[in-house]
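My current task is to audit a protein record that another person submitted. What it holds is a sequence and that sequence's fold in token form. Thanks in advance; the entry in question is below.
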Amino acid sequence: MTSSKIDKKEKESMLADVYGEVIFICIPFIALLAMNAIKSLSSDVNFFTTVFFSTDWSLISAVVFCQSAYKISRIIPKCGTRIEGRKYTLYLAIRFLYITFSMIVYGCMFFYPNIWLGFFQFLVFLGSLIVFIRDGLASAILDFRSKEN
């Protein structure tokens, strides 16, 4: 998908919108990191251990994947017949697979916490942010193109 019809100012606006949404998603985790830092100062618990043993990473990954699916689902009706239904179904199936995977990681971390699984769920969280940015830009471009026609 090329976006050559979109001028530089519109691209900057789209990026600012998506990055702003990502910042709002990250704010609770900045607070989580701050609370874990304070907790590690007041006890014998290692900061990185408390961060990676938190199940919040995989739980929020599922929320972020849901938000990505919502963003695209919101724009699809505006596009009309220009979107092929089978490809959209594949897109949704993959997003639900990501959501399910995040929830499985959450369950594993909840019942069998270990540092490797904690690190893995953090990587899943970073992956969800990448998917969110990509889907956010795609929905912004699709929205722009639907307004053009």
About this structure: The mean pLDDT is 84. Helices lie at 8-42, 47-52, 56-79, 85-111, 115-148. The radius of gyration is 18 Å. The CA atoms of residues 31 and 70 lie 25 Å apart.
